[in-house]
Amino acid sequence: MSGDVLRRVVIVGNGIAGLTAADTLREAGFDGELTLVGDEPYPAYSRPALSKALLLDGDDMSSHMLRPAGHGGRELLGVRATGLDLDRRRVLLGDGTDLPYDRVVLATGSRARRLSDSPAEYTVRGLDDALSLRRRLTSRPSVVVVGGGPLGMEIASGCLAAGCRVILVSQGTPLLAQLGPHLARVLLAAAQERGLTVVETTAARLSPDASRVVLDEGGTLGAEVVVTAVGEVPNTEWLAETGLTAGGAVPVDSRGLARPEVAAVGDLAAFPTPSGRRRVPLWSSAVEQAKVAARALVLGDEAPPLRFEPYFWTEQFGVTLKAVGQLPADGDPVFVEGGPGGGPALLRWSHPAGSGATVALNRRIPVPRLRRMNRAAA
User: Fold this and answer.
1) pTM of the model
2) What are the extents of the domains in the chain?
3) Tens digits of per-residue pLDDT, 316-329?
C-alpha cells in the first residue's frame, strides 16, 4: 500500500466489532473521514446482555447499553449494505447509493440459525428479539428452549427467573461440548436445582407453526413459547460476488486482513488460531480482532498480529463462570481457591502440551432457598 493515501474508511457493521474498530482507528492516528453502516436502527449495544439481564422483568432497561461512541464518525443506522465493489472501492447500499473508501472493515456479524419460517419461533440475537421475548415473558407462559449451549442455557435461566415453567431440549448433555464434563455438571446441577427440566435428544425439529418441538426419538413437547438457540449464520451473502468468502466466512491473516485494504472482524471472520483458521464468535474475540485489524489498516506491517487467547464467560442459574484458556476442559480440575462444595472457586486444568484453562466460578444461593430462610427467620 505504499503511496496509497488513507483519507476515507467505511466500517460495515455497527456492533461491538465495528465500534471497536472505529475507536481503534482514531487511537492509531487516523483522522480522516469515517463512516459506520448498521442495518439496525440502534447505536452499538452489548449482545451478551440480551440473554442475561435484559430478559428479566424489571425497571432497569439499560443493561445492554454501551457508552456513547467517541470516534466522531458518521453513523448510517437502519441502512443495509448489499454489495462490495473491490475494483472501484465502494460499499453498495440498499437505497441505491454507495460509499467510496480507501480502507473498509467488514463487521456484519451473524444472525440466528432458525428451525422454521414461522414468526412464532423466538430467537435471541438482536435487541428487537430480546425485547420481544421480554414482553412475552411478562405473562409467565410455559417455555420450551431448544439448544443446550451457553446461549440456550442463559435464555432458559432468564425465563425461569421471570417466573416461567421451562423445558430445555438439548442434543446430549447441556454444555458438555463447550465446557467439558466437570463444568457442565456444575451448571446443570444449578439449573435443575432452580427448576429447569432437561430433555436430551439426538435431534429435534419444530412443527410448521413453531408451537411444538418434535423429538427424533418420537414424541413432542408443546409450550406457549418456543425459543431456539441452535447456532448462528455469518452475514456474508452480501459479499458473494467478491471472492472474499470461503466456507461461509471471510478468511483473514493474523492481522485481520483479507486484502491490504480490506479487514474482516467479528463473527464473519476466520482468523488463524492454534487449532487452525476458524471463526471464534465470542464478544471478547470480536473486540480483540477489531483492535488488531484497525491498527493494521493504519500502520500496515508495523501493526502487531493477533495474540489469540480464548476468553469465555456466562451467567446462568445463579452461577457466574469466567474462563481463560482452551475449553472444553477434560478431566478433573485442581482447586486453586475454594472447593467443590460451593461458593467462589478458582479452578485450573493443565495439559502436558502447555495449554490449559483457568476458570473462576461463583455460585450463589438459589432465591427459593433464601426465601425459605427468610420465612424461617421471620
Assistant:
1) 0.90
2) 8-111+232-302, 114-228, 311-368
3) 999 999 999 889 99
